[in-house]
Amino acid sequence: MSVMIHKLIIPTPFPVGDLNAYVIEAEKLTLIDAGPKTEEAWQSFNEQLGKLGFQIEDIEQVIVTHHHPDHVGLLDYFSNDMPIIGHAHNNVWLEQDEEFFKRYREFFMELFQRYGIPYTPEVLLKSLTALMEYSCRRSLTQTVKEGDTIAGLEGWTVLETPGHAQGHICLYHEEEEVLMGGDLLLAHVSSNPLLEPPQDPCAERVKSLLQYNHSMTKISELAISTVYAGHGEEVEDVKGLVEHRLKRQAERAYGVLGMLKEKPMTVFEICRRLFPAVYETQLGLTISETIGQLDYLEEAGEIKVDETTPHWLYYAQ
Ligand SMILES: [Zn+2]
Fold first, then answer.
1. What is the reported pTM?
2. CA–centroid distance, residue 66 to ligand 1 (Å)
3. Contact (Cβ atoms closer than 8 angstroms) between residue 97 and residue 91
4. Residue 55 burial (CB < 10 Å; 0-12/13-18/19+)?
5. Neighbours of ion ligand 1 (CB under 5 A)
6. Domains delineated in the chain
7. pLDDT at 201 over 90
8. What is the mean pLDDT of residues 52-68?
9. Ligand 1: centre distance to CA 265 (Å)
C-alpha cells in the first residue's frame, strides 16, 4: 500500500477505552485525532510518536473527525500555530463557546419538558462540564465539508458522516480503498447517536439516529477494504458490519414498538423501561438512545405522537 498510516493507541479515562490516533505520512505529516487532555495521554502520545521516529514538531497538521474530548483534548498541548482542520460544526465545542452552552441548556430544558423527564438540564450540564475538563480550547484554523480535499494530503477526500456528532467527518482514500472512520463504525461496539442542540438556533432538533444510519449506509456503498477506527480494531468487512449494526438497530426499535403496543408512553417512561439500571446516571446517553428508537419508528410509519398532552405521548399505529 502506498499510503503510510501509523496507529497510536492513546489511553483515555472513559468507558470507551483507548483512543486511536493516526499519523499519515503524506506530503504533510498529518495527524488524525489526538486523545484526551491528560498527562498520561500526552506521555503515551509522545512515546509512540518517538518510536516512529517523529517528534511533535514534525506534525504539520491535525484533522479532527469530531469534537468529542477523547479525540481532541490533547490538542491543548500542541503549539498555538498548529493547523487544525475539521468540519465547521465542531467549532462551538472546541472553543467551548458560552453562547452555545447556554443554548445547550435551553435546548434540553425544552426537550425534558416535552418528553416528561422530571429533571433539570443541570444534571446534563454537570456531566458535560466534567467531560469538558478533558477537552481543549482551540479553534479550527480551516473548515472542511463534503467532497473537499486537504492540502498536503493527496488522494484523500472529506466525507460528512453526521450522527454520532453533528460535525463528524471521515477521510476516504478511493484509490487505496481506505477510510479514516472516526467513531462512525467500530468493530466491537455500536456508536451512540448523541443528541446535540442544532447549530442554527432556529432549526428543528436533528434526528441523529436517522442521520447516523444514513451515514453508515453511505460508507457501506463505497469500495473500502479497511476502516481505521477511532477505537478498537480496524474494520474490514464494512458492508457486513453495517448490515449487522442496522439489523440490531431495527430490532431495538421494534422492541420499543412492542412496549408501545401495550400502552402509549412518554419518552421518559420508555427510557426507564429500556435502561432501568443506568437511566439516572447516564441520562444524556439513554435519552439520546430512546429518542433515536422513536425517530426510527416514526420514520417507518409505525408510531404517532400526541403533542397535545403536556408531555408528548407516543403510541403504536
Ligand atoms: Zn465520539
1. 0.95
2. 7
3. yes
4. exposed
5. 68, 183
6. 4-96+135-236 (3.60.15.10), 100-129+246-316 (1.10.10)
7. no
8. 97
9. 30
